[in-house]
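Fig. S4 source data, part A: sequence.
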Amino acid sequence: PHPTTATPSTYRRHEQTAEFGRLLVNSGAGALSRAAAWCAEMGAQSGKIWTNKKLGPVAGTTDDELYESERTATNANPTHFGYSLAVPDGEYLLRLHCAEIFFGAPGGVAGGPGKRVFDVTVEGQLALDDYDLWADVGPATAVVHDLPVVVADGALDMSFDSSVNRPKLSGYELLPLERAGSYCPAAPNSVGPGADLA
């Protein structure tokens, strides 16, 4: 299941500022210089890095290299990993980048629906519930989940917890947002009072 995606009618992006602008993080790997610059991984609190060097092309993206590595769970704690990243309080759009690069992918093992099922919790709120990446898009295919997030404690906290095999993440983006607010109250009309456009 895909969570609700933030839309222009609800949010608009801040222009990048010196204080905090758009942040792109390559999970499980170093910096990438693509159309946009991806930072080396930051904020990881647990888990380990895994890379598929035989993966080859990834469908649904032109940034194949982003999806060749991932953060996943360890042998000691195979069902969980997390992130905590210091950021200013405020509203953000969090974009989670995923691709199944093990089950059914070149360099991996046989795949199919139900091979990997996990939850994602962001700031204490369940964002993805029993998410089956293979069933959603299949192997070696990129997918991005857009999640509106409010940070009120100075840190973005994410938890990845699986019920089948290990959870995973290829990368994440964090974009500051601001509420659009009411900008055009409409006049009363034949069906009643006007609405506020926002």
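Fig. S4 source data, part B ends here. Helices lie at 133-137.
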